[in-house]
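Justification of resources, computational component.

The compute hours requested in this renewal are based largely on the per-chain cost of generating structure records like the one below. Each record pairs the submitted sequence with a full structure-token output. That output is archived, and it is also reused by downstream analysis tasks.
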Amino acid sequence: MLKPQLDLRNEANNIQRFNENFSNSKYDVTFPELISEYETHPDVLVETFCTGVPVEKFCEEHKDDVEIRQHLCNTAAATMCEMIFTHNFVHGDLHPGNVFVSPDRKLVLLDCGIINEYDDADHELLVDIIASFIRMDGRKAAELMADDSNRRTAASGESAVEDVEKYIADIEKLSQTPRKSDFVFEKVVTYADYIFNAASRHRVKMNASFVSMMLAVKVQEGVALLLYPAVELMKIANPIILRSEAERIQMNGGQKMKQLMQDKMRELR
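The structure output for this chain reads:
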């Protein structure tokens, strides 16, 4: 994770891709832009200066402006969902200092040096698990993670998950939080401890990239709750998840049809 950040050309590529992904977005979110007159080098990156205030400070200064806070909350949640379910290109470092609010009331996402991106198989598994957490279905999320762990440990000759039902119960408890207005960012460490302790107790082999993605989601959920504690995340996320699932079904159906046609052609030969 650290080595790619030492070459600022990687961050430049990330900035460009985020701007492309959200170029026609209906959401009020923005990123720094590259200054085209200056070529990016491993040690030098020149980008636009983004004016704004940190999201925590904005919330303190606009405690009574419920409408704008709710709008920004919806923007934060929808932006993360688009990154995960639509783009498969997720900002991996959205701590409070990297989330600003601009003077024209847009979310500004800074420091694009860390991203999460997955191959097709891992992305499909990932979105199923994250969708389960968002829908408060910790049982399904745990089942998917346990099955994935067993597949990988079987391939390497390691032990399978111990007491699957207890592991599922542990993760199901996690999916029920946070749903209180006092959750901000300091509790992210608690989530990390909880996830790893459950995995350790039940011999679940965790994927490091997947864990970093889950934590990124939890942090962004914290941003949303900070802006508007009454947010109903499922109402924001479900349309994006459903669209993504429909696209995946259509794509997988097309691939299966193509494979069937190829098999038939081989038989005719």
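The longest strand covers residues 99-101. The mean pLDDT is 83.
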